[in-house]
Amino acid sequence: MSMQYEGGCMCGAVRYVAVGAPVNERICHCHSCQKAIGAAFNARLMFRAEAVSLSGPFKTANSSPNVQRGFCPECGTTVFSGRESAGVLAVTSGSLDDPEQFRPTMHIWISSRQPWLKLDDGLPRFSEAAPA
Ligand SMILES: [Zn+2]
Ligand SMILES: [Zn+2]
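A: This is the predicted complex of the input protein with zinc ion.
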């Protein structure tokens, strides 16, 4: 049985299908994700870029020279972040049709965690990026 992840933005103009197992599923607390998502963290599923088919009139904005944030210009939903140079694209868990498909395995960039956020899920935490 092959895994498939489908989702899209709030208004439905932007849609995606990701096929196969994610490369990783992480919760990122970095400032850049906080800004781009407009929330305390970015709970995202990363795929090889070629595993994700995007449709609709999405736009991208760079949050750093190497990271593109993809959003719907109609409704503003942040749908994905991409690192073109690394060939990966991470969809936001909240944009999944079934957000319960998200199975996080770690927290990263805990050094930027918002101070009110208490974590007790027992998942590994890394001050910055995960060790290679
Ligand atoms: Zn939309
Ligand atoms: Zn981040």
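The helical segments are 31-37. The two ends are 29 Å apart (CA to CA).
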